[in-house]
Amino acid sequence: MAIKLLERLRENDRRRQTFVQALKKDERERRKHMEDVIRQLKELNTKSFSR
């Protein structure tokens, strides 16, 4: 559930992003952090189902 929510937020951010926003360091860091969280949640989800 959390993974789907974060992925939707990420997609929404991509749609509304302008070129200037993409150049801002804090925006890039926030985006990278969101990608890391999504990746980690997917890994945890995969590990919990494989047990």
General description of the model:
With 51 residues, the chain is mainly α. It has one domain (2-50). Helix content is 90%, strand content 0%. It has three helices and no strands. The protein has helices spanning 2-16, 19-23, 25-50. Helix 1 (2-16) runs antiparallel to helix 3 (25-50). The radius of gyration is 13 Å and the shape is elongated. The protein starts with a helix and ends with a helix. The mean pLDDT is 86.
Mean pLDDT: 86
Q: Please report which band the strand proportion falls in: under 5%, 5-15%, 15-25%, 25-35%, 35-45% or over 45%.
A: under 5%
The separation of the N and C termini measures 20 Å
Radius of gyration: 13 Å
Number of helices: 3
Compute the number of strand runs. 0
Throw out a few tags for this protein.
single chain; 51 residues; mainly alpha; 3 helices
Summarize the structure.
With 51 residues, this protein is mostly helical. It has three helices and no strands. It has helices spanning 2-16, 19-23, 25-50.
What's the topology here?
Elements: H1 2-16, H2 19-23, H3 25-50
Helix pairs in contact: 1-3
